[in-house]
């Protein structure tokens, strides 16, 4: 029996239930697949929309030893909340002084950025702990090949001057979710060569890292010293078609706030894009595209109520949408809970919405926002 998230009997608003026990479990699953590596839990974008602080604690309970974020502000919010473990921030272009003062490690992608970090370290009066990001072919951030030698030389000089400690050499994969893709080998070799070159010049990185969730779960040759899972922690689908026993963390639910009969021929919602084909009963859900229920899903998804699925009809609006309960009303009453996606009987997964929308579960999860309440179950 899968463990189902406890949804309280009655909701008064759209709610994202976050199962922290599932976070802990999912980190353990990743750690079991990468037994020789440390686990850095990736908490960027408010932990993919799940809440960075509670997810951080649950991930650490599952065996993560480091945390990864995009911006310095995200890192400092965790520090301010009392998180003391290593945190790496890899995509900020400012805030270096505050980061260094708070012992936040910085990803560096160019000699110019390194110079700014060095200046910040001087002004704070302590060395910056740096992970140099190497562009091994994703062609996003990372030190480009033509700037590698200059960056490495500047790192050597900064270490001599005591302004930098080069702790990490890392990269990000272009085809992580395709475990057989030959480009993974190209990137592995390029990262290993950069780390070897750094060492040959006297640098002593202790953390070489490349693997996102998919590579952490499928490619031991990419584990190096540390893996950086994100979507796996949230129970998404890191590799399409593969099941690793991960548990969904977010269950997105909302109350049915109004139930009413419609006659055959009645139109529903803006533009009357749906006309009742028969006498029926409809229910109203107070969640819309401002909450992460995408308007392009209009008329294309189903919610689960008490394990039964009911189709959404008419346009999804900013604040609400309508479901067709059928001529007999499906036994649904006002106050019942409709599960939009997540870990509940009959419910879609975030990845099902992703398929309908031509996107991925990452985007579906991070879109749940604004007025949506967050409720946590499990250790906080
Ligand atoms: C987002 C991110 C990750 C996590 O990726 P998943 O596919 O969610 O596991 C790892 N590393 C970097 C640099 C990232 O930006």
Short description:
With 380 residues, the protein is α/β, with parallel strands linked by helices. Helices cover 30% and strands 23% of the residues.
Notes on the protein architecture:
- The protein is elongated.
- Helix content is 30%, strand content 23%.
- Strand 6 (128-133), helix 7 (145-161) and strand 7 form a beta-alpha-beta unit.
- It has helices at residues 20-33, 44-49, 52-61, 72-80, 96-101, 111-124, 145-161, 183-200, 213-218, 350-357, 361-367, and strands spanning 15-19, 38-42, 66-69, 87-89, 104-108, 128-133, 164-170, 207-211, 226-227, 250-255, 258-262, 267-268, 274-275, 280-285, 302-305, 308-313, 321-326, 337-341, 373-377.
- Helix 1 crosses helix 3, helix 6 (111-124) packs parallel to helix 7 (145-161) and helix 10 (350-357) crosses helix 11.
- The chain is built from eleven helices and 19 strands.
- The strands form four sheets. Strands 2-3-4-5-6-7-8-9 form an eight-stranded parallel barrel, surrounded by six helices. The protein has a five-stranded antiparallel sheet with strand order 11-14-17-16-15, with no helix packed on it.
- It is α/β, with parallel strands linked by helices and 380 residues long.
- Residues 42, 44, 90, 172, 212-213, 228-232 line the site of pyridoxal-5'-phosphate.
- It is an enzyme of class 5 (isomerase).
- Pfam families: Ala_racemase_C, Ala_racemase_N.
- The active site is at residues 44, 270.
- Pathway: Amino-acid biosynthesis; D-alanine biosynthesis; D-alanine from L-alanine: step 1/1.
- Residues 249-377 form the Alanine racemase C-terminal domain.
């Amino acid at each position: 029996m899968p463990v189902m998230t406890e949804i309280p009997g009655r909701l008064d608003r759209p709610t994202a239930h976050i199962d922290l026990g599932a976070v802990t479990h999912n980190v353990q699953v990743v750690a079991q697949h990468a037994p020789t590596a440390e686990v850095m839990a990736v908490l960027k974008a408010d932990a993919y929309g799940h809440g960075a602080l509670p997810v951080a604690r649950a991930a650490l309970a599952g065996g993560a030893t480091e945390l990864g974020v995009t911006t310095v502000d995200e890192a400092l919010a965790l520090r301010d909340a009392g998180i003391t473990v290593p945190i790496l921030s890899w995509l900020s272009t400012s805030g270096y002084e505050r980061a260094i003062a708070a012992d936040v490690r910085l990803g560096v992608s160019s000699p110019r950025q390194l110079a700014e970090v060095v200046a910040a370290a001087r002004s704070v009066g302590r060395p910056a702990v740096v992970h140099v990001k190497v562009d091994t072919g994703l062609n996003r951030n990372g030190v480009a090949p033509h700037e590698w030698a200059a960056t490495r030389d500047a790192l050597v000089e900064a270490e001599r001057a005591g302004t930098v400690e080069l702790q990490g050499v890392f990269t990000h994969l272009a085809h992580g979710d395709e475990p057989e893709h030959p480009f993974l080998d190209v990137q592995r070799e390029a990262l290993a060569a950069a780390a070897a070159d750094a060492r040959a010049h006297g640098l002593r990185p202790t953390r070489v890292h490349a693997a996102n969730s998919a590579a952490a779960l499928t490619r031991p040759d990419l584990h190096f010293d540390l893996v950086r899972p994100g979507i796996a922690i949230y129970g998404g689908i890191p590799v399409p078609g593969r099941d690793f026993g991960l548990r969904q963390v977010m269950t997105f639910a909302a109350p049915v706030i109004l139930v009413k009969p419609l006659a055959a021929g009645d139109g529903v919602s803006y533009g009357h894009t749906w006309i009742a084909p028969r006498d029926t009963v409809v229910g109203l859900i107070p969640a819309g595209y401002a909450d992460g229920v995408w308007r392009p899903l209009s008329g294309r998804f189903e919610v689960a109520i008490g394990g039964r699925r009911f189709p959404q009809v008419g346009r999804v609006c900013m604040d609400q949408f309508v479901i067709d309960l059928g001529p007999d009303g499906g036994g649904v009453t006002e106050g019942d809970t409709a599960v939009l996606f997540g870990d509940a009987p009959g419910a879609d997964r975030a990845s099902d919405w992703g398929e309908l929308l031509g996107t991925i579960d990452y985007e579906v999860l991070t879109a749940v926002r604004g007025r949506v309440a967050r409720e946590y179950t499990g250790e906080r």
